[in-house]
Amino acid sequence: MNANTFLQQLQAAVRRLQQTTEAELAPLSSEVLNYKSNAQSWSVFECLEHLNRYSRYYLPAFEKAMQHPQRSSAEVGYSWLGKKSLEVVRPGNGKASKTVKHMNPAGSQLSRGVLEEFLQHQSRLLAVLAAAHTADLNRKAVPVEFFRLLKLRLGEALEFVVLHEERHVQQAQRAAKQAQAAAPALVV
């Protein structure tokens, strides 16, 4: 895919995530946002905190990878590792994935700050994507969070983060609907 089109699509997806979060999740009460349908499920806040933990790692990694811009290819390429990583987090992939322990927010005490941090990360991600227009998206420059000896190409890593966010924002939307259905008195 053409690099400019690729980055524009990722930027549009992040803007949709911002809009969804602001329009559908932010207006809900803290009780709804903390609601869990069962012990194994995540609340809206837990879904967003999981994404915040990834953003705390990947956003600085992206910025570091782009410190020395050098555009090399007009097309975005994929490695075997990149293709596999994207398939795992793709929102349409119905398979549940087990998260690494330090990225699992289950049981955390969470508040509205989680939602605000998530929106701040989205703004920062948009800035990274804008800056990526001058970067080599095919350069293996971003260490994988849970096994840093492995590296993804910059383009693959950017797409990974956006798809991962889409997947968990959809999960957060489902959690919010379950909370509203199970406890209509919580809805404000």
UniProtKB/TrEMBL annotation:
Pfam annotation, one family: DinB_2
Domain DinB-like: 15-172
Matching InterPro entries: DinB-like, DinB/YfiT-like
Annotated protein name in UniProt: DinB-like domain-containing protein
Organism: Solirubrum puertoriconensis
Biological classification of the source: Bacteria, Pseudomonadati, Bacteroidota, Cytophagia, Cytophagales
